Amino acid sequence: MKARLMDTGLDANRQFRVKHVDEHFLNSPFHFHESCEIVLIEEGYGKRIVGDHIDDFDKGDLVLMGPNLPHIWQNDNIYFQKRKDLRVKATVLYFEPAMVLGLVAGTEAAAAVQALFTNACRGLSVKSNTHAYLLERLHTIRGTDGLKRFSVFLEIIDILARSTDYDYLASDNYHNAMTIKDAGRFNDVYQFLITNFYREIPLEEIAGVAKMSPTAFCRYFKARTQKSFVTFLQEIRVSHACKLLRQDKLSVMEVALESGYNNLVNFNKCFKGITALSPSEYRKKIRNELLTA
């Protein structure tokens, strides 16, 4: 499956589109496009990569992305068995930022909307009260059409522009250095890593996926992602470990093994290097947040 500069279905006569997803699993490759995109996961879980950021996603995940920001949402391996009790549902909005900026030009909203789209170039994970407000609007927009649908869309943009309830995803210094050809190669690499992160992955094996020598692959990966392959793999593993720790069902040692670590000392070191907390401290923090919520 080759990645590409994806066609969002927008053109000069259609600068806003709502898409509903209801599938056994998400099947879009690692890609980017020239439109803004809002993604709400209504059912399903897995991992998402936005720019140089990787994290787990679950029901309720809500992200706004600016133009030309590479991304992929990929379900966990269990979804590819096409079990009847597992499906993925999502609402996706594509829109041209220039269209919105043109509508608000010369109004008091212009600066806030421009700032929102600038921030969205890093990807924004929407949280807290803003998340709750937008869930209602995104559920409403699917059942409307015409001017009513467009008015709900503008309300969504207004809520986002007024809010600071979001986390940045891609790092502050991230820039998309990928060509369409690069995205195709990284699609293969990322899908392999998301599927196999829990086991040892020799450098020669992942370089083979990219059809490169190990030395060339390491240089290429860092040049395109602004981080080393080893760092990226650790981030995948620690992200998965965070999800398991939040679920609070496994011991720390079991979480380490499930996340690709067979040495507890190494797991603790890698986890703290990325989150600034030990696994036990992270679990305690999550428990305290649940008690005070």
Helices, by number, come to 11
Tell me, what is the CATH class of the largest domain? Mainly Beta
Please identify, by name, the CATH architecture of the largest domain.
Sandwich
Radius of gyration: 20 Å
Overall pLDDT confidence: 93
- Helix residue percentage: 40-55%
Count of distinct strands: 9
Strand percentage: 15-25%
User: What kind of sheet is the major sheet?
Assistant: 6 strands, antiparallel
The CATH superfamily of the largest domain bears the name Jelly Rolls
**Run of helices and strands:** EEEEEEEHHEHHEHHHHHHH
Helix- and strand-based class? Answer: alpha+beta
The separation of the N and C termini measures: 43 Å
Q: Which fold does the CATH topology of the largest domain refer to?
A: Jelly Rolls
| Order of strands across the main sheet | 1-7-2-5-8-9
Poorly predicted sequence stretches spanning 5 or more consecutive residues: none
- CA-based shape: globular
Number of domains: 2
Organism: Chitinophaga arvensicola
GO molecular function, one term: DNA-binding transcription factor activity
Pfam family, one: AraC_binding
InterPro entries: AraC-bd, Homeodomain-like_sf, HTH_AraC, RmlC-like_jellyroll, RmlC_Cupin_sf
